[in-house]
Write a structure and sequence with these properties.
By secondary structure, this protein is mainly alpha-helical. 64% of the residues lie in helices and 1% in strands.
Length: 472
């Protein structure tokens, strides 16, 4: 690609800075290694029943019988070696996309049936794989940040936050499809950006494949579709889908990338809901919930109360003695469930209660700082148009989709940060670009950057200590 084309990128590279005499590559590798090691320890200490939303039980299975929950789906696939031949609405868990469950069943075939491992050991190993999926997704997010031109201290601070953000600990230890879905989502976003820069068809093909795999794992992958489509629209406007080095009709290059994307992505996203619709009459993208807590929200709180800015009480209450009094607000619950979990942390201990409260306060502060710095980057000239569109459309699309999802499913378990973990990528990108303004930075930019960096360092240390020392 010519130097002229290289200038049309998400952002130019900044000058690499050294921290304590070591290059930023050293600190990136160090932070990732420590974070992965602590996540594995956390997984081992909690066990596969941790964060068990509709986990189910592994019990004796009669011929033709199916148990509910994630374990019930895996056991059914493991023992029958086929997709369910009954209406998935009748048994909770079977309506979800089955890719994660299929891979788990294949693993059990290999290590339980063939190698003789105990079923508990296999399930615990499968849980630890989620830490690998989360780390792989974080590495992909690092690739996205680097394509936005970030190096040095701002990149290290962003990685430090993503590595030790408690939501990724929780997601990496949950026996569910969320971690695998997160990995596929970040792979798709990374390849979409790479395709915009290089115009190579293999990257748009990979984007479609990873998006399809994400949708075959969890419908939550649809949260990244606005960001991917925004990159494609920009490519059309900038005519970046045409490779001038190839001699072929203009229309062929107009159709090829997008036709390829929509066919591959459509197959991956629609095969499971269409299969259930044709065979059992199940509505497309049907999702079944366990409604034990339905009455807690239904009819008691208006939509405005659920989506408005939370009050101090809704934020400060840590759900110990409230009896569900402050569980209805979507944003308060999202921020709190991304920080701590009662299945892993004993909140009745004074130290854990204090640290959880401190993390919650810093989480709110960082959320505000990220958005203020991101808005400053959007309003200034330091962020290129491509990054503005990518982060703005991606963020609003995921945020609106998440709010609609929570409002349509008025139960507390729906308001969980793990459904849309990729959303933090967009404000983090804007925050880091604001901090990397260099000579163009104003006094306010420098103050915001310094405060944000120090809060991230303290946040990471407290989170690592809480989830490393006080984990169950």
């Amino acid at each position: 690609m010519s130097p002229k084309h290289d200038t049309i990128a998400f952002m130019d590279d900044n000058t690499t800075k050294r921290i304590l005499g070591f290059p930023d590559e050293f600190w990136i590798a160090f932070v990732i290694m420590i974070g992965f090691f602590l996540k594995i320890i956390f997984d081992i200490s909690t066990g596969y029943t941790f964060q068990a939303r509709n986990l189910g039980m592994w019990t004796y299975l009669e011929p033709g019988q199916a148990h509910e929950g994630t374990l019930g789906v895996i056991q059914y696939l493991f023992e029958n070696h086929r997709l369910p031949d009954f209406d998935p609405r009748t048994v909770s868990g079977f309506e979800s996309p089955p890719l994660f469950h299929i891979l788990c069943a294949l693993f059990l075939d290999l290590f339980h049936r063939a190698a003789g491992w105990k079923i508990g050991t296999c399930l615990h190993t499968l849980q630890c794989f989620n830490a690998i999926f989360v780390t792989a997704g974080s590495l992909s997010e690092i690739g996205i940040l680097r394509k936005c031109g970030l190096v040095g201290r701002e990149l290290v601070a962003s990685i430090l936050f993503m590595t030790f953000f408690p939501a990724f600990y929780i997601m990496g230890a949950s026996f569910s499809a969320e971690a695998m879905c997160f990995m596929f989502c970040t792979f798709a976003l990374n390849n979409a950006i790479t395709w915009y820069r290089t115009k190579e068809l293999r990257h748009i093909t990979r984007t479609a494949v990873f998006f399809g795999l994400g949708m075959s794992t969890s419908y939550a992958a649809s949260a990244i579709l606005p960001a991917v489509l925004s990159v494609m629209v920009l490519a059309v406007r900038d005519k970046r889908f045409v490779r001038k080095t190839l001699k072929a009709p203009y229309k062929k290059f107009f159709r090829a990338p997008f036709t390829r994307f929509f066919i591959i992505a459509g197959i991956g996203a629609l095969w499971w809901p269409v299969y259930n619709f044709i065979r059992f009459g199940v509505p497309l993208f049907y999702r079944k919930f366990s409604y034990e807590s339905w009455e807690m929200l239904k009819g008691k709180y208006s939509g405005w109360m659920r989506i408005r800015i939370p009050s101090i009480n809704e934020f400060s209450d840590l759900q110990i003695d409230s009896g569900g009094k402050y569980l209805y607000n979507i944003w308060a619950q999202t921020l709190k469930t991304s920080i701590f979990d009662y299945n892993a942390i004993n909140m009745e201990l004074r130290p854990t209660y204090i640290m959880a409260g401190l993390l919650l306060f810093m989480n709110i502060l960082l959320c505000l700082l990220f958005h203020v710095m991101w808005i400053r980057s959007l309003m200034g000239h330091r962020m290129k148009r491509e990054v503005k569109v990518f982060t703005g459309v991606g963020y609003l699309g995921a945020l609106i989709g998440y709010a609609v999802f929570c409002l349509r499913n008025p139960i507390v378990s729906a308001m969980n940060f793990c459904f849309i973990p990729t959303i933090i990528l967009y404000p983090i990108t804007g925050m880091a670009i604001c901090g990397a303004a260099g000579r163009n930075a104003t006094g306010l930019d420098r103050i915001l950057t310094r405060v944000c960096n120090w809060v991230i360092v303290i946040f990471a240390v407290v989170a690592a200590f809480l989830f490393g020392y006080y984990a169950a």
